[in-house]
Structures are given as structure tokens and as C-alpha cells.
């Protein structure tokens, strides 16, 4: 079948010559026109956007495939892009075939496939009167593609604000303490009682009345750590107590056994101590006080606190389920020697390591650099992807001929919130949402990857986990940061030392977003404002810590 494809910003003319073929008995024409209504609102025009190269390839591939089923002779497809007024043609398809049946069949299936598989989508709907713009509903498209494209380039603050707004905390679940390490606590836990619950001995020894000046005492009982034997002590009476034992009454002190000589039931105190050797009831915490606030990440110490307070199944955030795909046919596993043109995969292990701090369940896989084959691979992993709270795709986030991450996310039903941030390194950064699920397309270069993770992915994970994202802190440069003014904000790899009054920042050398050498040293990113250039030693700067060190 002969195929002609045009993607054009020009109006599609009313008169289009049929593709005449000697054997043709039918010439079928279809025009899709822009309707005056979108999502229930009156509109004046629709704006279409496309990945032209990829769209052309997809259209051709679909037509060739369909021609096996419907043996047609020729097809012409014209799709208009840009702003298309109501009533004007957005898509024209003409098909020549021996009989009408093949042309009708091919056209009907082609239009369905165009909507599903071709990266052409409605960017926005223009209002029917000035000042009101109707965003297109995600997943709906009159002629092709899915989803909504929003203003593409965001500032760092705008991008972070979108992420904060759109990522909501996952519903909290109760888990046993053994599974609590690294989880975010989602409830405030209060002390249910005084801790310790009663006065306890801190020594193995003899409890005697606090103010009794006697040197000799009669031992009237023995109290082990697990015993509860309330009683009063008369002057001259003592009880043998173990470390941790609950004292029988108030107003006692404990004499260490090393300072006592015992004969039968009698003891003689050899040395008087200053300390009472008693942990008083409630000295650690009083009943009702907050032991652990909602939003903290549970470490071993916090878990011990919850255990002591009897909170055996605290409410915590579930482990975020993360699916991470690498892309790029040049990528080989780290254990393999790369051929010229190939690159070892460092992003998989980078992401795995960075996610450790967020207590995630991670699935990782590689996608071929062919949109069709990538979709097949994705289809075989649909359940994992549909269950994932967060989808990460490394590489292919830009607008190169083979960069399909955005199209892939849209194909999966994600609404693209933005696809570029005015940032160095890390400008091509895609953020999308699909209901409660979030997705990022991260630039493949390792340093961009690292920066985008800490700025954006970490913020999304914090929100999903019910925490506030880490904010920028103020530090002081210990050395000059040498740079040319850049129109983008820069996140500069840095070593921070937490000594002295202000954190000390030492900018690390880096040449390009492809650098890997500075990653191991970096524990912070200095935020260099757009157009700033160098920052002198001693000056203050904002920075984002990237590790807890
Ligand atoms: P991309 O974002 O796909 O245009 O890739 C940008 C650069 O990052 C290219 O040089 C890629 O080879 C490199 N890159 C992409 N993925 C990885 C990866 N998993 N590990 C290391 N480098 C990568
Ligand atoms: Mg790539």
C-alpha cells in the first residue's frame, strides 16, 4: 500500500485530490473536525501537539499492519497541529481500495489506533470568550494521542509546588513493630502511663527508709525484678532488691550491695552514698505526654520508645511501591565491558541506593529503545505498574527522535503536569500523575539523575509517605564557587560539613551532567540563582542536604 503522511500547522484544504490507482473501485475520505465543546464547556479552538517524528513512524506502522488485514491500495493521512478553530479539520484520511469494504474496515480501525497509540494530543482547549481556558480531560482526544500537556517549562519552585500539591499521603496502615523500621509514623503516640510506672532500684542492693540514719538493718524481704510487693518499711528495716525491681513504697533509698556487710538477716552499711539509686516514677516521661510525633521516620530508638509505651502496631505509611525502568539501547549491565558507543548502567544502582532512605518496595527493568517493543515489555508488567505508587523512567525524557518517555507515560494514562524545569543539570524532567499515582521521567545523565532525584523524586516520596519534603537550608561557602552566570538555576554538587555556627559548604568540581565522579563525595546541593555566576568564599547560600550524614 502506498502511504502519504503529513503533519502540518497549515489549515487542511477543502479540496484534496484522491489518490487514484488503476485497480481502485473506492476512494473513501474521512475528516475529523473540531467540535465547539470540550469537557462540557464551549470552546473556540483546540491546540494539538505532537512528537512529529514518532507520530509519523507510528502512523506508517499502523497503516502497514492494517493493510495486511484490509488490502487497500493507498492511504493519505494529514494531521493538523497547533491551534485549530472550531469547525476546521484536525485530521484527514483518504483511502483507495478495490472495494468499499477494505477501505471502511481500514479507516475504522486506523482511527481507533490513532487515538490510542500515536503521540499526538490535545494540548489545551481555547475558551469561547476571552479569559477562560478549558484544560483537556486526560485520556480524551478527538483525533489522536492522550492526555493534557501543560505549560512545559517550570521554575524549580513551581515544579516543587506542583509535586507537593499533587502527591497525597498513602493511606496509613497498622504494622507490627518488627516491620516498622524506616516507616513514617502517621499518628502521635502518647505515653499511656508514667514511665517508669513506679519507683525502681537502679542497683542490686538494699532499700532502706530514705532518712533513717541507722547503720544496721533487718532484712525483711527480697524483691526481684519481676516482683510487685507493695509494703511499708519501719525504721531499721530493709528489703533486698535487684536492679530494676519495683520498690515496695515511696521514700526509700537503695544502698549498693558492695557497700554492705551481711550476716544472716542483718546488714551493716559500710559506706553512705550521696545517690538514692532510684529511678522515680514518671522521671522519663509523664502519662499523656507525646512520645513520638506524627511524621517522624521510625529509627531503632523510636521503635524502642513505641515498644516501651505499648504501641505494638503503630499506624505508619505503607512502603511505597516503586517501578523503575531504564531506557536506552546503549546501556549495558555494570559487569559487562561496553563496546564503543555503549555505556554501563549506573542509574539502576543509584536509584536503588537512593530509595533505601524511603523504605520502598522496588521493581527494576530495562526498556528497549523502540516505542512498540517498550510498550510490549510494559504490557507484560502491567500489574506491577498499575500497583506502583511511583513510576520512574531513566532517560528518554528529552525531545530526541528516540525519546519516548513522555509518550509512554501518556500511553499509560498519566497526565503530564510538566516536562521541563529551568534547571542545571536536569532540565528535561517529566512529572505526571494518574489518580493517586505519580511518575517521573528523569534525564539519563547520572548527575542530572542524582539532582532530579533529590529535588523532585524525594519530595514526591516524602509527600506519599506523609512527610514534608526536606527544605533548603542556609550555609556559608568555605571556598569560592567558580561559575559563569547561567540563565537557569543551578544545583551545584557540594560537600557540607556541619561544624561551627553555620554549615560549611565546599563546592565540588564538575564538568557536565554526565559526570559520575562527584556523586560519591556529594552530600549537598548548593542552589545558585539564575544569572548569579560565582559565589565568593564566606558568602551565604541555600543548600539541600542529600544524605543524613
Ligand atoms: P537520555 O536522557 O536518554 O538522553 O540519556 C542521556 C545520557 O545519559 C546518555 O549519554 C545516556 O547514555 C546516559 N544514560 C542513560 N541511561 C543511563 C544509565 N542507566 N546509566 C548511565 N548512563 C545513562
Ligand atoms: Mg536515551
Characterise the protein shown here.
The protein is α/β, with parallel strands linked by helices. The protein folds into five domains: 130 residues, Alpha-Beta Complex (Aldehyde Oxidoreductase, domain 3); 54 residues, Molybdopterin biosynthesis moea protein, domain 2 (Alpha-Beta Complex); 80 residues, Beta Complex (Molybdopterin biosynthesis moeA protein, domain 3); 144 residues, Molybdenum Cofactor Biosythetic Enzyme, Chain A, CATH 3.40.980; 73 residues, MoeA, C-terminal, domain IV (Beta-clip, Beta Barrel). 19% of the residues lie in helices and 31% in strands. The protein is built from nine helices and 36 strands. The strands form ten sheets. It has a six-stranded mixed beta sheet, with no helix packed on it. It binds adenosine monophosphate and magnesium ion. Magnesium ion binds next to loops.
Amino acid at each position: 500500500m502506498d502511504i502519504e503522511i503529513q503533519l502540518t500547522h497549515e489549515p487542511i484544504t477543502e479540496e484534496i485530490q484522491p489518490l487514484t490507482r488503476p485497480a481502485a473501485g473506492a476512494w473513501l475520505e474521512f475528516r475529523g473536525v473540531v467540535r465547539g465543546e470540550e469537557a462540557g464547556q464551549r470552546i473556540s479552538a483546540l491546540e494539538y501537539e505532537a512528537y512529529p517524528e514518532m507520530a509519523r513512524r507510528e502512523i506508517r506502522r499502523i497503516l502497514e499492519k492494517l493493510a495486511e488485514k484490509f488490502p487497500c491500495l493507498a492511504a493519505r493521512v494529514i494531521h493538523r497541529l497547533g491551534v485549530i478553530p472550531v469547525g476546521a479539520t484536525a485530521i484527514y484520511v483518504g483511502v483507495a481500495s478495490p472495494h468499499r469494504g477494505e477501505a471502511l474496515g481500514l479507516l475504522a480501525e486506523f482511527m481507533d489506533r490513532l487515538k490510542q497509540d500515536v503521540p499526538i494530543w490535545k494540548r489545551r482547549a481555547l475558551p469561547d470568550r476571552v479569559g477562560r481556558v478549558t484544560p483537556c480531560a486526560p485520556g480524551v482526544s478527538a483525533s489522536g494521542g492522550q492526555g493534557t500537556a501543560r505549560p512545559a517549562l517550570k521554575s524549580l519552585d513551581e515544579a516543587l509546588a506542583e509535586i507537593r500539591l499533587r502527591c497525597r499521603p498513602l493511606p496509613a496502615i497498622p504494622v507490627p513493630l518488627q516491620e516498622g523500621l524506616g516507616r513514617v509514623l502517621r499518628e502521635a503516640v502518647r505515653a499511656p502511663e508514667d514511665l517508669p510506672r513506679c519507683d525502681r532500684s537502679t542497683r542490686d542492693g538494699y532499700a532502706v527508709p530514705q532518712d533513717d540514719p541507722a547503720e544496721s538493718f533487718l532484712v525483711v524481704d527480697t524483691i526481684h525484678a519481676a516482683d510487685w510487693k507493695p509494703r511499708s518499711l519501719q525504721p531499721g528495716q530493709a528489703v533486698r532488691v535487684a536492679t530494676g525491681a519495683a520498690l515496695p513504697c515511696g521514700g526509700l533509698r537503695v544502698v549498693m550491695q558492695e557497700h554492705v556487710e551481711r550476716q544472716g538477716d542483718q546488714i551493716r552499711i559500710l559506706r553512705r552514698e550521696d545517690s538514692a539509686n532510684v529511678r522515680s516514677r514518671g522521671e522519663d516521661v509523664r502519662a499523656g505526654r507525646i512520645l513520638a510525633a506524627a511524621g517522624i521516620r521510625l529509627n531503632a530508638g523510636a521503635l524502642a520508645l513505641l515498644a516501651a509505651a505499648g504501641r505494638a502496631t503503630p499506624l505508619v505509611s505503607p512502603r511505597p511501591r516503586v517501578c523503575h525502568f531504564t531506557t536506552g539501547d546503549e546501556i549495558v549491565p555494570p559487569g559487562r565491558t561496553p563496546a564503543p558507543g555503549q555505556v554501563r548502567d549506573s542509574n539502576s544502582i543509584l536509584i536503588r541506593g537512593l530509595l533505601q532512605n524511603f523504605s520502598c518496595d522496588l521493581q527494576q527493568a530495562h526498556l528497549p529503545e523502540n516505542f512498540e517493543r517498550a510498550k510490549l515489555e510494559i504490557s507484560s508488567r502491567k500489574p506491577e505498574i498499575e500497583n506502583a505508587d511511583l513510576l520512574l523512567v531513566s532517560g528518554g525524557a528529552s525531545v530526541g527522535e528516540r525519546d519516548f518517555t513522555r509518550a509512554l507515560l501518556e500511553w499509560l494514562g498519566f497526565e503530564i503536569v510538566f516536562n521541563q524545569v529551568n534547571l542545571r543539570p536536569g532540565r528535561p524532567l517529566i512529572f505526571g500523575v494518574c489518580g493517586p499515582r505519580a511518575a517521573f521521567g528523569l534525564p539519563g545523565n547520572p548527575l542530572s539523575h542524582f539532582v532530579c532525584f533529590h529535588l523532585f523524586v524525594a519530595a514526591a516520596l516524602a509527600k506519599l509517605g506523609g512527610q514534608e519534603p526536606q527544605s533548603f537550608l542556609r550555609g556559608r561557602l568555605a571556598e569560592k564557587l567558580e561559575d559563569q552566570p547561567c540563565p537557569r538555576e543551578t544545583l551545584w554538587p557540594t560537600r557540607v560539613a556541619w561544624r561551627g555556627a553555620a554549615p560549611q559548604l565546599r563546592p565540588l568540581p564538575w564538568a557536565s551532567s554526565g559526570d559520575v565522579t562527584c556523586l560519591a563525595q556529594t552530600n549537598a546541593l548548593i542552589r545558585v540563582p539564575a544569572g548569579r555566576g560565582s559565589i565568593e568564599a564566606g558568602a551565604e547560600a541555600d543548600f539541600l542536604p542529600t544524605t543524613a550524614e
